[in-house]
């Protein structure tokens, strides 16, 4: 498959002789399928504990929590929500962003400067407090970075989260569950699915990384350039949608253009090697990963029964029956079958153990 535009070189040209040209086309490199049996990969536990289930339920309860005003004599605790007025000065002078009125803050969230939120703990409604903090070194205004600022804070209100009980009224937010135990069972099944996916993804990642790291190949420059171009196009589209400039994107992730381009190039090389390795394995193991008709039918049913509007199902069904749709499904199943084959032949070392897990006997 060509990976760049043809390069044309005129060899001979003249009035009485045929035009003689030389066309050079750089093609995608063909690599031999790498040995994949016996590669070590980490197996993350799929076990679902009571603690996992309770944590998930607590998170859901937290999402539905109500904020209630605390009693007048209660002091601020970490996790409380407060409404404050504040004003800060450096050497008696104001600075940008130094003040706010009726500002709502979750104490301990790390929203404001280090030391500011800690200074609110133990305060009571109606109190005023002055705290001195050191301004962070990494703030945009370098004139005040690292200096000391004095903040005057008026605490106007304290609110605390009140979590809903795990009762019938709460369960109705998520569906028709007869009791908390049935809901816990649903949560447990969902966590189990997530953990199985995490385990599978980690094993596949370890195997592919091992194969890529052992591949001795100078990736052709056009393939690297194409990957970089596609990534930059996708990034530009996403930034434009959110009305974010590339310079602001760099600032948000503490990047320079040089470091960004360097990392992007390394990513492009790695992803291209992954593509070549997987492509070679799919060709070499074609007979072992060819989709069964039952798999194709199951995949179609899974897609159609997914979260799709009824108005869109007819179009989706027509696409799945088209040649492009059929190829898409077959390619997807082939990739899944290949990964199943790689996992089956890997040495799975359970997390926290040094002993490889033996593959199950057929």
Mind sketching the topology for me?
Layout: E1 7-12, E2 20-24, E3 40-43, H1 50-63, E4 66-69, E5 81-89, E6 99-106, E7 128-134, E8 148-162, H2 168-171, H3 180-213, H4 221-241, H5 246-252, H6 257-284, H7 286-289, H8 293-304, H9 310-321, H10 323-344, E9 347-350, E10 356-357
Parallel strand pairs: 3-9
Antiparallel strand pairs: 1-2, 4-8, 5-6, 5-8, 7-8, 9-10
Q: Quick recap of the structure?
A:
This protein is α+β, with helices and mostly antiparallel strands and 362 residues long. Helices cover 44% and strands 18% of the residues.
Describe the structure.
It is a single chain. The chain is built from ten helices and ten strands. The chain has two domains: 97 residues, Chitinase A, domain 3 (Roll); 178 residues, Trigger factor, domain 2, CATH 1.10.3120. The model has no long low-confidence stretch (mean pLDDT 89). The protein is extended and about 95 Å long. Helix content is 44%, strand content 18%. Strands 4, 5, 6, 7 and 8 form a five-stranded antiparallel beta sheet that branches. It has a three-stranded mixed beta sheet with strand order 3-9-10. Helix 3 packs across helix 6 and helix 4 packs across helix 6. The chain has 362 residues and is of the alpha+beta class. A hairpin with a 5-residue loop joins strand 9 and strand 10.
The chain-level structural class is alpha+beta
* Apparent shape: extended
Indicate the low-confidence ranges by residue numbers. Answer: none
Architecture (CATH level 2) name of the largest domain: Orthogonal Bundle
Distance between termini? 40 Å
Biggest beta-sheet profile: 5 strands, antiparallel
- CATH level-1 class of the largest domain: Mainly Alpha
Strand content: 15-25%
Please tally the helical runs, counting DSSP H or I stretches of 4 or more residues: 10
